[in-house]
């Protein structure tokens, strides 16, 4: 007689998967709890902001850039038209219109799509419209958004809005901007919704981003530095938010503090190194050249602003007072220089060309960069590449000793050929037509490679495939 034993039936695969899901869920919940405790600890122990609103160095002036330089210690006007005028100046310094104006007929009404690695973020309406803008916002709501990155409804704002820099701006200056925005024409317009993939569409996750990339608090002047240095630091680190474009990013898209102002790529454009490094940065530039570049967009034999920087000059820095421009330069001179690995400054490349003689009567086969340059570019830049008009405000710039042409990447040059230049200042209305609709990717690449080889850095090249990637997605070639 055999002895029988009973055994429990084996679990089927469905039960095993359910058990694993419960275990994984518990582990995820535990990890989230640890993160939440970290956020709570950070909020409880973070250093409190030191009030600095009464310090004269913080006071911006609403003087037009063409007026005599103002004194830094002029008392702040508490209200009325002078407050609005100062707010308008500060809004220019912060370049608010650039991001919050998609349609020139709807200024400050938002709707501009910003392409980020996590999806599309669309800028909001900041006109005083009560339904679609910020007309119902209190001053406290406005300050909280600017200082803490939290909207009126308590939602966390995405860091495409540079609250990580605006947090340093004094309450006085922000309320002046608010007073100016209140005088704008209310525009009833609801911008399109953001287009972000999961989990980046979960705003509460910004608490974790803030934990590693954001320190709330106002700018504190350095008593060891001059008034001009402190003013420049206040503008560069705060309203002007220069690091947003000129500092590379970490894997979370926060600013990489170890490489401040060393250059970065934004929307396919290279924002160059602006540290005082003599080769990779602007260490060889004179103060008056830097001021001229910020106020006009042109520094002969150095650079000509195009793309996003051209817009910054046209919409913002050309309106800054001479004192503020000089203060910005003084501060930038003091930041640690960062080498980008270049062997030669960007503006020291190039020689005049004589290819036009060789092209006469020559049979051209295939895509020829020299021929395309003579046909499309020489009428303005001269077939020698030396430009037309010397250093006059409206001159066609030389391609020799030109930072864009001498850069280690030809992307900015290709972008200029594709999209052209439109930069309007008090000094000149600069226009270069866009050739993106007239030239193929191969032709744009051929022109760019000819220009860099002849007038700039010969090691800098671009392919037709790279040019294609720089075109807007809606207009494939």
From TrEMBL:
Keywords of this protein's UniProt record, alphabetized?
Cell membrane, Electron transport, Heme, Iron, Membrane, Metal-binding, Repeat, Signal, Transmembrane, Transmembrane helix, Transport
Q: Kindly list the residue ranges recorded as spanning the membrane.
A: 23-41
Top-level taxon of the source organism: Bacteria
Compartments, as annotated in UniProt:
Cell membrane
- Span of domain Cytochrome c: 82-185, 227-336, 364-455
The cross-references to InterPro entries, in alphabetical order and at most eight, read: Cyt_c-like_dom (IPR009056), Cyt_c-like_dom_sf (IPR036909), Cyt_C_IC (IPR008168), Cytochrome_c-type_DH (IPR051459), Membr-bd_ADH_cyt_c (IPR014353)
Q: Which SUPFAM superfamilies match?
A: Cytochrome c
Q: What is its main location?
A: membrane
What protein name applies here? Cytochrome c
């Amino acid at each position: 007689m055999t002895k029988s034993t009973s055994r429990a039936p084996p679990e089927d695969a469905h039960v095993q998967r359910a058990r694993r899901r419960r275990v994984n869920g518990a582990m995820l919940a535990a990890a989230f709890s640890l993160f939440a405790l970290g956020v709570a600890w950070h909020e409880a122990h973070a250093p409190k902001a030191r009030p600095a609103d009464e310090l004269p160095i913080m006071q911006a002036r609403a003087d037009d850039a063409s007026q005599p330089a103002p004194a830094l210690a002029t008392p702040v006007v508490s209200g009325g038209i002078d407050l609005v005028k100062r707010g308008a100046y500060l809004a220019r310094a912060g370049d608010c219109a650039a991001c919050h104006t998609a349609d020139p007929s709807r200024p400050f009404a938002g709707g501009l799509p910003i392409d980020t690695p996590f999806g599309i973020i669309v800028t909001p309406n900041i006109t005083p419209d009560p339904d679609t803008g910020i007309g119902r916002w209190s001053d406290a709501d406005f300050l909280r958004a600017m200082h803490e990155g939290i909207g009126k409804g308590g939602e966390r704002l995405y860091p495409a809005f540079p609250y990580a820099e605006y947090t340093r701006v004094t309450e006085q200056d922000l309320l002046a901007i608010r007073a100016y925005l209140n005088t704008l024409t209310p525009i009833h317009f609801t911008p399109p919704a953001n287009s972000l993939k999961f989990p980046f569409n979960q705003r509460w996750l910004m608490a974790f981003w803030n934990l590693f990339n954001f320190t709330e608090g106002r700018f504190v002047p350095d008593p060891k530095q001059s008034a001009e240095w402190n003013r420049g630091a206040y503008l560069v680190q705060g309203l002007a938010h220069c690091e947003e474009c000129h500092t590379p990013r970490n894997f979370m898209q926060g600013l990489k503090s170890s490489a401040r102002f060393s250059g970065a790529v934004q929307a396919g454009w290279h924002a160059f190194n602006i540290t005082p490094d003599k080769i990779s940065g602007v260490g060889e530039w004179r103060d008056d050249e830097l001021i001229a570049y910020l106020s006009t967009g042109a520094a002969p034999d150095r650079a000509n602003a195009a793309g996003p920087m051209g817009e910054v000059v046209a919409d913002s820095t050309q309106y800054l007072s001479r004192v503020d421009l000089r203060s910005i330069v003084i501060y930038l001179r003091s930041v640690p220089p960062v080498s980008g690995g270049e062997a030669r400054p960007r503006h020291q490349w190039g020689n005049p060309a004589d290819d036009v003689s060789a092209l006469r009567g020559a049979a051209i086969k295939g895509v020829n960069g020299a021929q395309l340059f003579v046909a499309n570019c020489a009428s303005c830049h001269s077939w020698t590449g030396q430009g037309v008009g010397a250093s006059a405000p409206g001159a066609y710039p030389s391609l020799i000793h030109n930072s864009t042409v001498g850069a280690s990447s030809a992307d900015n040059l290709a972008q200029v050929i594709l999209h052209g230049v439109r930069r309007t200042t008090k000094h000149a209305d600069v226009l270069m037509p866009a050739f993106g609709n007239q030239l193929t990717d191969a032709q744009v690449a051929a022109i760019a490679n000819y220009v860099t080889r002849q007038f700039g850095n010969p090691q800098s090249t671009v392919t037709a495939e790279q040019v294609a990637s720089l075109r807007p997605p809606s207009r494939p070639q």
